[in-house]
């Protein structure tokens, strides 16, 4: 069932790195690829940036990049052509990418104890900051009907990370109290997903203005972590009960605060390490309150499909701080550096 | 259905603390209690000591002890009399205690985020170093038929901790590789329980002699952690696959080693903190290998009943380093200080 | 910590059976009980009826009733006095009953393979159709602040059954499709709980009028099972995907329809047996779609506490078809016979 | 990384159906295939037969077979050549097939509520009764080092089914009581896997001779179901506690017996339907004992890899009733008809 639709253009724009550092980032034109066996050719209409894209551009994050290398992992677009033997999608289908290609369900089937598993688009695989990508059809998921492509492009990494932590690992349900740290992309998805399940949300931030915006999105409580000990604030806000789930996005010694704030038998999802790569905390609350700590590495395709259904069902709209044109990547990276409220999106069309 | 059997004696020996420190530990005689409503009176025949009993004796471990206070939590004995309304046991039944009285199944139902849950025998409740104890019948479990009382007394804390970590939290099954750290009571139960489920066991220790003894008990591999990096040894022994479960008994910075040694999607049970109360480790293996870390606080009664059935079924014999007479408590505490190979038991009869 | 508040009255009204059948149901007055050790005395303000109460009244349902026997299991009220040693509640606290007293969390700890576990209020224990009840404090849960006592009284059986099936056993999350059969108490709680978690709800019924009322409550789709094959309707409404969860309330051969309607790897909760006690269905969809079938027997106290929090958080208001005065029990039983839309409540104050 | 090793022969023997019925089964010779992109060419050395292979030969079992069609799903052999882009295996690696190709982990990702998922080798895909097969590399798993190829060929269907039911769905652990019905391939694997995890095993059979053989394999109890009610026997043998897990292999009304025999809160895995495709049973024990019933459709690749490790670790040797030569397929099918004790294997080399 091979279907080939000849695209009108023959060249695709593509951001590519010829080396590390912003200075080596250029906008090039290369031939539009043809879908190989089992692949689909997708016209990319929006790309969502993650902080890690900035790191890959600056230092490669340890990936063995083949220059010229195109960064970024999260996209939405439309299937233009279908390779030999591919049958999951048809031309015209709107799709989004998967962050960890090939992780379909269950446990990660790559890597081992020594060699950490981390095969992602825009890392071990080429990225998506390009008018066209051609990847195996298994690497895509149908886009939600209720979102435009810019919004849909935020799901593969930030959206799925929050969903996987709260729903897949944390068994989110109504009546739980969820703490999200900060107001970045994962945090705000966490807020929205928790609210959509009838949970109470406490947001911590160092900015009163951002707490106001989080409140407008439905956060029940905002805690200015520069003004008070946020773990004690969680005690206060929950009548000492503590939080049923915490999205630990700061890392470092902040894990210790999460261990203080967590309820008995509850769940901490370790996701981010803004405060430091060496996490630490006191053993007593871990031993005596018996929480579970999950390390989160985005998530699998089945959960992304669940998230897409949930998005369509609940009407959640991803929070996009600002959308940039394709040529404005440098400005978008500057914005990423400053710490956006939610997501940054690059529109290609 | 009140049944009262008059014990022949009227006085019970009892070790009691009149203050903190070994000097304030005395052997007293007090009247044998009568079982209150819902209670059973149990003739204690053996008590198993845990390292925490030493700490309670020395400094109270933060418990609000009412002096004179009898320490120790783990015992085996025989029901002598049954209080009004109690029906779980009959006189003559052999029973063991539960470490966390009232924790029947599921989540801990005590404590909160601020006030850590830790209601144990020999801590928030009186202990068991006494000829007789009278407790609510719900605090006991039928003893395994295949063990003598000294052996059976080791199950409530050390046995259940290892079982709860591996089976209840870790879903132990044949073919897994389990790392146990050291050769104390929990570690050796971990070794035996893992072996009884068809798992492979790696023991780490600082003593070659203890590794030899662990090998005789069925350990597949012994790693002298003073001679090599134990996490790298796990890589070597598993062909880089890593361990499916790790009983983290050292705590402190050793958690970082466990994060290195653990397999993708696997399980670390944090149990002990011999190396330090501030646990720490690198975030990368936690984020990328996505293990689950469980804080373990012994376990609930249903799991102890499961363990008793498993003991009777598999023929596991707890490893007792040495058994002491009731009057020899000080020598037993010295032994505890030195670090026994397995458990220390006090025989009362 | 004994607190005794002398109630102003000394007699309590009480519905009691002196034998089987409605003719043996009388309204009596008996002395207000005093709370025994570990008990609380509760002033009952509302009782919610279940179909089983009608069966107990008519034939005892196999329970060994001690006449005079007071039926019914679900109540809300206010603690008036606290017995010796009881500390969970204080006078003035609003509470609701638990359907299976003593089932705190985890697995049922009563009964065995031969002797089915079924120890309930208004069955193996005395019931609650009385101005006052005195029960062990562990048998109560704090009432939700957002409900009046009549509404709160519907949670212990109908509310918890739906919650336990969908949330505790079925891991409900946003984007799932849930089928509820009929418009009785459990079904409508299922509808509301599913909606509060962002799920899609299909209601089946034999009454177009009831489907309209379910639609007004938020049901996404109504299927008149007298007009079409409801399993095929589920295929149609889900694009053949099937239902993620089905509350099987009819039993009998209807289980076969549920097996047809269920999605791959999804969940069927068997709760009711209106259509027959012998359940049956084809093996092929069970073997090939690999669903899980859970037998549901209401649920444990921890889940009821979770439900109470969820109710307060989400603002769910239980659907009460009609409220009756205490003396109107016979009319309420007639209504139960006809099949109410939601719940029937008896107000005592 | 294409590696091509030219096999010495150029023709492969192959059993093929040119229509339904034994009469249309012929031994043919066809060219040895070349591995396509992502495929591996495997020299088949042993094939294990399942009862369904007999049904496929006789009536196709509803599969849309393209004649000439080669039946059978389970094989062991050696990789001879590796297609373009394939990297999981190298020539010389010993492998076994997966029964449901492409089911890697988690939920089945094929089929839906209406169209039952059932894509298997020797069904929707060509089978393995051939000297050579060339399939996508993802369809194979490394063979256990401790088994010869004939033994290893029994794992993909019968071995994995028992493992998936008991370990993956049922959380098997030491001390559980497991009932296996009959002495076919799945049943005996269930017996061996349960024993390797320290569980107690009750085997039911209509043949005293087979019960003796099961006893020699380690069954703790044998119940002659023609001589007594097997559910009552389970009550007797467990002191009324019931079975923690039941491999329901008979189906039909036997499910009712399993519901009687199962312990409170325990697990029934429905696997076989020898007694009838319409399963049925009383609702009361399902509702009141709250067991979970899982439909089992063999299992995923990750679980097969777990099983392989467990086999190597525990030394389990699959029970093969008889091994036949490649040309003896008709005799092997006759044996299958009679009901073997364990598995039937065809040796190709």
Automatic annotation (TrEMBL), chains A, B, C, D:
GO terms for molecular function: oxidoreductase activity. This is NAD(P)-dependent alcohol dehydrogenase. InterPro entries: ADH-like_C, ADH-like_N, ER, GroES-like_sf, NAD(P)-bd_dom_sf, Zinc_ADH-like. Residues 21-346 form the Enoyl reductase (ER) domain. It comes from the Bacteria. It holds the Pfam family ADH_N.
